[in-house]
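Service request form, structural biology core

Requester: graduate student, group of Dr. S.
Request type: structure prediction, single chain
Budget code: on file
Notes: please return the result as structure tokens.

Sequence provided:
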Amino acid sequence: MAVIVPKSDSFATSASPPTFVAIDFETADHSPDSACAVGLIRVSGIRIVKRKYYLICPPRRSFFFTPVHGITWEQVQRQPTFEVLWPRIRNLFLGADFIASHNVSFDRRVLESCCRAAKIETPDIRYVCTMKLARRVWDIRPTGLSMVSRYLGMPVTHHDALSDAEACAGIVVAALRSGVKSEAPD
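Core staff response, request fulfilled:
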């Protein structure tokens, strides 16, 4: 799987506006297979066509990041596992040109680890890192999600998976609107 970082002003695969899914995971502990929430935003062109948020029962009761995202074992213990949720998540990826994520290495690692733990084939899809995209297009530093969202005038509730995914989608859309071409990367 390739991580796409635009080297020029282009990052999508065709002359038409892309269809993509912005994703954000929250994890229970330091292990990347401990997803406890996921936010997914499907965008067609520059329009959000689907918003999904799922709490996920992680493989362990260990919750280290509750102070960050507010999710507890009690909230997720009766929720579906990643394996059970996978068909719904996978359906959002179908036909998408890429997955967008802020600091893509984290969310890609969580997705791959959860798939591996569930013995599910990881989707073969390109990734666009909106943190690197924001640096490239607007020369923003630092490029934390809250900082980029503030720069673009978008609200975000950081560490809420759906809000973070929507902010990530907004960054891609803003880049498209600012003139980033929708063509194959260099």
